[in-house]
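To: structure desk
From: M.T.
Subject: fold request, one chain
Message: Could you run this one when you get a chance? Sequence is below, nothing fancy, just the single chain.
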Amino acid sequence: MNRAEILKGIIEGYRKSIHQRYQYQNIKDKYGIPESINEDTVNLLRNYWLKYIYPEFNKRNELNEAFQSLDNYIKHPKKLVRLLLDATKLIFYYGRHLPKILNTGLKAMKTFRAAERFENSLVDEAIKNKIEAPYDQSKINALIKLLPRKEIEKFIATSQSLFEILHDRIQIDKIKEIIQYLILAMKTKEESYALSQIRGLEIGLELIVEGDKLFTQLAKEDQQILVSLITEIEKDMLGYND
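Reply: Done. Structure tokens follow.
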């Protein structure tokens, strides 16, 4: 198998593991969640992971191209801040906090790229250790155990950061407003921005908007429970709590 075939197999295997661990009854039995976090909420959460963080292999090209085009802005957000200098309304409302809010929004968008790097690390280990497809749960677990603990810690921290940002009800509305403005501003200056850069922000905004829906349906105390629950589920899956 070549690298692309191994990556496809690992993506399929990891998606199956997500589908399995985000089953309502499994979570209820293992983590003792309150009745207010019901099966519909868990289904929304599972679908969010599978659509926006770990999409199917055949949907990766568009996402990879879009988020790769955003890498430069994520590393150097000041390039986007310049676009905001013309936004009198935003400057009036948010003032000196504007760059910080934008940076937080871009930070949330790092999760897909972190997942991509994580999957490629699993591919490296599969090739190095001659672990062949099909990649069922036991093989995925074996590959994860081969990764350095620091890499797993970093990956968990990135995922946790996304959901903590989504949980910040005041901040998330500001982030959505700013990114929406950036998309419109970039579209008026298409000669200066590639379509993939604009598409990257649009997909990033969709990731934030859909993630926001997970929390708007929950009471405040349940929102924090959900963030903690996701962290614990991912830590258990990645062997962090072993």
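Reply (cont.): The chain has one domain: 3-237. Let me know if you need anything else for the meeting.
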